[in-house]
Amino acid sequence: MKIFEFSTNVIDRIISELNHAEEFIRIAVFQIHDPQVFSVLNNKLSEGVRVEIITLPYDSINEDIQVEVTNLFQNIEKNGARLYFCKWNVGDPERTTTAVGRWYSFHG
Question: Tens of pLDDT along 65-76?
Fold first, then answer.
């Protein structure tokens, strides 16, 4: 398991680590939005690397990018990735100005 410190180049480090995967990639993350990450995951799937992602449901993604990110997830799933969604709703999104959709527990 890799743990990353706070940094301004975290995406580059993540992509580098993903590129080194030979057998499997298992990701547990609040959300993924970066198209480069999805591209690397698709490449790894085509190499036979197993990919599993635990994340929040699509309705938690900000509306201005929801369709694009949903399509990226559905594409890697079509290519063999296993997606698991944390759907445990723990509160009312009206209680905060930053929440969209539902207030899922994964972020907390």
Answer: 999 999 999 999
The Cα 108–Cα 28 span in angstroms is: 13
Question: What are 2-57's pLDDT values in tens digits?
Answer: 665 666 778 888 899 999 999 999 998 888 999 999 999 999 999 999 999 998 88
State how far Cα 101 lies from the chain centre: 17
Are 81 and 45 spatial neighbours (Cβ–Cβ below 8 Å)? Answer: yes
Separation between Cα atoms, residue 55 and residue 34, nearest integer Å: 14
User: Helix or strand or coil: residue 38?
Assistant: helix
Place of tokens 């959300």: 31
Domain boundaries, the chain: 10-104
Fold of 10-104: Endonuclease; Chain A (3.30.870)
Q: Which residues contact 88 (CB under 8 A, 6 or more apart)?
A: 104, 105, 106
Q: Is 51 helix (H, G, I), strand (E, B) or coil?
A: strand
